[in-house]
Amino acid sequence: MGAEDFYPEEAPVHRVELDGFWIDENPVTVAAFRRFTKATGYVTCAERAPDPRDYPDADPGLLVPGSLVFQKTTGPVDLRDVRNWWAWTPGAFWQRPEGPQSNVGGRELHPAVHIAPEDAEAYAAWAGKELPTEAQWEYAARGGLDGAVFTWGDEFAPRGRVMANTWQGEFPWQNLETDGYAGTSPVKRFAANGYGLFDMAGNVWEWTADYFTSRHPEEAGKPCCVPRNPRVASPEPLEAAGNIPYRVIKGGSHLCAPNYCLRYRPAARQAEAVDTSTGHIGFRCVLNAAA
Ligand SMILES: [Cu+2]
C-alpha cells in the first residue's frame, strides 16, 4: 500500500496482509441503486433537510435537502478554494445529479452519485455486503501490479490509449474530453485491471469503511509490524472546526487533472466529510468471507 512519489498522505509505502474477499466489479450503478430504493423506500442524506442542531452556525435558509454539484468555470481560478467550482445545489440528489432540472435519463449504467457513507452502508447492508476497507480497495485496484503508479502500469496512456475517465486539460475551466466524457461515464467503458475490475481509477471517487488519517501508520513500514486486515474504525480527534468526521475516498474521479489533483492512482487517498455528498463520489461493495 501507499506511494512516496506524489502526495504526503500516501506515505509510507508498506505491506499489509488481508484475508480473502470479493469485490464488486464496478461501482454501484444508478439502476442498482434504484432497485435498492424501490425495495426499501430508502431516502438518501441529500434528500433530507440537515438537522439545525447539527449545524448551529448555519444559515437556516441553507438547511434544505441538496448536494454539491460541479460547475465548470469560465477561466482559470484560485485552485486553493474549492468553492470556485463546487456549488451547493438544493434539490440535487442521485436522481437529479445536476439539480432539480436534471435527471438520470440515459445514465442508468453510470455510477450512482450524491451518495453519503450512510447511504452506501444502507445499500451494502441491503445487498448483504459491506464497504471495502481502504486496504481492500487499494489491493483490488492494483490488480496484481504491486508498486505500479496506475492500476494498469506506470504509463498514463500506454500507446496513446485512454485508460480511465479523468480530466484532460486545465482544471476547472478547460475540459478537452480526450477520454470522451465531461462527467461520469457508464461503468465498464474503460479496460478492466488485472483482477477484472472496472473503474478503479477515475469516473467517481469511492467511499471506504476507513476514517481518514493524514498518513499511513509509520510502524506499518517495518517488517515486524505488517498489519492484518487494517481498518481505521473511528475518527481521530479533530482540531478542525465542525468536528465532522472524515472518511477515506479512493480512486479519483472525472474531475482529477494533473494541474490540480493527480489522484486516479491506487495509492491516492482523500479525506471527505461523512455528511458530504457530491456529483463525483460513489461506491462499491465487498463480500467478506465469513469470520
Ligand atoms: Cu482529484
Would you kindly provide a written description of the structure presented here, covering whatever features stand out?
The protein is largely without helices or strands and 291 residues long. Helix content is 10%, strand content 12%. The protein is built from three helices and eight strands. The chain has a four-stranded mixed beta sheet. A two-stranded antiparallel sheet has the order 1-8. Strands 2-3 form a two-stranded antiparallel ribbon. The longest helix has 11 residues, at 30-40. The protein starts with 20 loop residues before the first strand and ends with a strand. The mean pLDDT is 94. Copper (II) ion is lined by residues 252-253, 255-256, 261, 263.
Question: What's the arrangement of secondary structure elements?
Answer:
Blueprint lengths: L20 E3 L6 H11 L25 E5 L15 E5 L26 H10 L7 H9 L62 E7 L34 E5 L19 E4 L7 E2 L3 E3 L3
Bound molecules: copper (II) ion (CU).
What form results from the Cα inertia axes? Answer: globular
| Bound ligands | copper (II) ion
What does the radius of gyration come to?
18 Å
Uncertain segments of ≥5 residues (pLDDT<50)?
Answer: none
Q: How would you sum up the major sheet? A: 4 strands, mixed
Q: Which percent range fits the helix content?
A: 10-25%
Helix/strand/pairing category: little secondary structure
What string, H for helix and E for strand, traces the elements in order? Answer: EHEEHHEEEEE
How confident overall, as mean pLDDT?
A: 94
Strand content: 5-15%
Alpha-carbon distance between the two ends: 24 Å
Q: Treating each run of at least 4 consecutive H or I residues as one helix, how many helices?
A: 3
Question: What order do the strands of the largest sheet run in, or round the barrel if closed?
Answer: 6-5-4-7
DSSP summary, beta strand count? 8
